[in-house]
Specification:
By secondary structure, the protein is α/β, with parallel strands linked by helices. About 30% of the residues lie in helices and about 25% in strands. A 3-stranded parallel sheet has the order 1-2-3, covered by helices on one side. The radius of gyration is 11 Å and the shape is globular. The two termini are about 20 Å apart.
Length: about 60
């Protein structure tokens, strides 16, 4: 059984690469991104995308 993993910036180039590798190894992944520079399409369908800004702590924790 894999881990539950949160990847901040998960819709950016490096974050999306990390998401894909984590999924490949059987982990349950949530990608957190505000999409200011990342792209929704970069997050694999098997991962959950939570759209929020870490600067807004209340909202960020509410969506994950």
């Amino acid at each position: 059984m894999g881990l539950k993993v949160l990847v901040t910036g998960g819709a950016g180039y490096i974050g999306a690469t990390a998401v894909r590798l984590l999924l490949k190894h059987g982990h349950e992944v949530t990608a957190l991104d505000n999409l200011s520079q990342g792209h929704r399409e970069a997050v694999p369908a098997k991962a959950r995308l939570a759209i929020a800004d870490l600067a807004d702590r209340g909202n960020a924790f509410r969506v994950i």
